[in-house]
Design a protein that fits this description.
The chain is α/β, with parallel strands linked by helices. It is about 40% helix and about 15% strand. Helix 2 runs parallel beside helix 10 and helix 3 runs parallel beside helix 4. It is globular and about 60 Å long.
């Protein structure tokens, strides 16, 4: 191999290593069962897959949704989601595919996008892919957003406000009621909410924070993922029929991707039905999330995403390694995922953890931090 040919890339990797930011796929530790506080299996369904009957169906769709004849399972899942949400659903191959494809497609002539500063990278990539004109507002700052909308409303054909319901790094929640109030104040505003970390976790039927807050029918586009609490693969958007028809015709990630296999869609349907009946588990998850934070002396909260800020990549890496030695898998989060100084360990709790187990894990973490 011509090493000189790749020297620029090698130097880049060396610089990451020097800053304690070099990533690698974590290895499985032989002979050691780690307590997994990394995955997004919030409702513990991935840990209990053997309790569900395996669905039948083909393991390939062989073509995109616009060309494949193997779509009965896709339609069944979309119909079930539409029944739950009361509006049409459209499935995508992943949350990343959904956000990139939907956001870029929404950029019709003279559209302005206004995004919370902490929205997921996939939403930012959608803005980039669509060559969108956009502004950012400080995280969860409704006053700043209102000021932007007051200046820009009436100057564009459409304004799309983008936020997440539960944010993936801090585990905090968007002020959905206030966002909906702004949507109703300005008639040219569409509201786009990513429920990736709330679908299955919040709401009476697990439909997300929009359901729990009572605004589910006043958000123009809701995006949910099936690879987290639903223990499957794929994603979906909920919107009016006009919008789903528009996306079928304009979203490049939908048009040009081979559809997920029918067997995966059948499994997703099984998981969606299971989640709808897990209201007690959702309340339990809130309780242990509060308990975990309280025991570690962290700010109050009731979402299963619990950040422990370290302030530097080196400290995050060191703490992660020491926790692994104690049997806890909790990986460091570093730049560019978080800004400088925002380095952290992010703990992800799940509903299969009992209160006693949660306290045991918290005690191990607390002792490791003190040492």
């Amino acid at each position: 191999m011509d090493n000189e040919r790749y020297s620029g890339y090698a130097r880049f990797l060396e610089s990451l290593s020097g800053e304690s930011r070099l990533r690698s796929i974590p290895p499985q530790r032989d002979g050691m069962r780690l307590i997994d506080l990394c995955s997004n299996d919030y409702m513990g369904l991935a840990r209990r897959q053997e309790k569900f009957e395996r669905p039948s169906g083909s393991y390939t769709s062989s073509a995109s949704r616009l060309l494949s004849f193997r779509q009965l399972s896709h339609s069944r899942l979309e119909e079930r989601l539409a029944t739950l949400y009361g509006r049409p659903a459209l499935c995508f191959n992943s949350g990343y595919h959904a956000n990139v494809g939907i956001v870029a497609a929404l950029n019709i002539s003279d559209t302005l996008f206004v995004a919370d500063k902490l929205v997921h990278a996939s939403m930012i990539d959608g803005l980039m892919a669509g060559r969108c004109v956009f502004k950012r507002f400080p995280h969860n700052d409704i006053g700043a957003l209102d000021a932007i909308l007051a200046r820009e409303s009436g100057n564009h054909r459409q304004i799309v406000v983008m936020a997440e319901s539960i944010y993936s790094m801090d585990g905090d929640k968007a002020p959905l009621a206030e966002l909906v109030a702004l949507r109703e104040k300005y008639p040219d505003v569409l509201l786009y909410i990513d429920e990736a970390h709330a679908f299955g976790v919040r709401g009476r039927q697990g439909l997300g924070l929009c359901e729990e807050t009572g605004v589910i029918d006043r958000v123009d586009i809701i995006v949910g993922t099936l690879g987290k609490a639903a223990a499957s693969m794929g994603a979906f958007c909920i919107a009016d029929r006009c919008m789903t028809d528009f996306l079928i015709n304009t979203s490049r990630s939908f048009i040009f991707s081979t559809a997920l296999p029918p067997a995966v869609m059948e499994w997703s349907l099984t998981m969606v039905d299971a989640l709808a009946g897990m209201s007690e588990e959702r309340e339990h998850l809130k309780r242990i999330s509060r308990l975990f934070r309280e025991h570690l002396g962290l700010p109050d909260g009731d979402t299963p995403i619990v950040p422990l800020l370290t302030g530097s990549a080196d400290k995050a890496l060191t703490l992660s390694r020491r926790l692994a030695d104690k049997g806890i898998m909790a990986l460091p989060i570093r730049r560019p995922t978080v800004p400088p100084g925002g380095e952290r360990i992010r703990f992800s709790l799940n509903a299969s953890m009992s209160e006693d187990y949660t306290l045991t894990v918290a005690n191990i973490i607390k002792e490791t931090m003190q040492k």
